[in-house]
């Protein structure tokens, strides 16, 4: 497994398991995600949550990689993560670049003027990054709530619910139990 910081593990370093919606302990400035998916986030004075990134196995997250305050890492699935000491780890340029590219991709997704365009781009990004192929298309098995998606896109939960309903009616997606199957043949050709 690759990591943002490469160095042999100290025998004293142990991974920790976190449940759905748990927060990674902020006392550790860096965490390597071993399995599962988490999001880094901040919030505005009015309580509006802003998703900064969505991270999976092999990614490094933590306050040491951000200048945003407040900053938290919330588990979107069950997560196993290892705390890292920034003093013991040396940056790996390729994975730092990957980290930046993922954040840029989310910034571009959020830059579309129409929410349905943002949504289809986000679903495609999630399918490529965290999906797995199933008979009907790509399963995004993250159990994201409509509010989670709204937080990523900077829109409302009501708008997300409406657009997902439209996508389902149009055959772009299939939904069940907060899981979304992105139908490849439809999603790639969806006209906004």
Automatic annotation (TrEMBL):
The keyword Transcription regulation applies. It comes from the Bacteria. Residues 113-186 form the HTH crp-type domain. Keywords: DNA-binding, Transcription, Transcription regulation. Coiled coil: none annotated. Pfam families: HTH_Crp_2. One of its GO terms (molecular function) is DNA binding. The keyword Transcription regulation applies. This is Crp/Fnr family transcriptional regulator. It comes from Leptolyngbya boryana NIES-2135.
């Amino acid at each position: 497994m690759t990591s943002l910081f490469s160095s042999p593990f100290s025998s004293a370093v142990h991974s920790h398991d976190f449940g759905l919606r748990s927060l990674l302990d902020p006392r550790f400035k860096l965490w390597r995600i071993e399995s599962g998916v988490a999001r880094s986030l901040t919030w505005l004075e009015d309580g509006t949550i802003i998703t900064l990134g969505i991270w999976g196995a092999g990614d490094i997250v933590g306050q040491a990689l951000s200048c945003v305050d407040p900053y938290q890492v919330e588990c979107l699935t069950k997560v196993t993560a290892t705390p890292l000491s920034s003093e013991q780890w040396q940056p790996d340029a390729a994975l730092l670049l990957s980290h930046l590219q993922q954040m840029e991709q989310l910034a571009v997704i959020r830059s579309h003027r129409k929410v349905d365009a943002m949504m289809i781009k986000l679903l495609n990004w999630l399918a490529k990054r965290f999906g797995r192929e199933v008979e009907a298309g790509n399963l995004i098995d993250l159990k994201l709530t409509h509010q989670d998606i709204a937080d990523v896109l900077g829109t409302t939960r009501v708008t997300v619910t409406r657009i997902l309903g439209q996508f389902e009616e149009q055959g772009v997606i299939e939904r069940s139990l907060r899981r979304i199957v992105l139908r490849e043949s439809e999603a790639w050709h969806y006209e906004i």
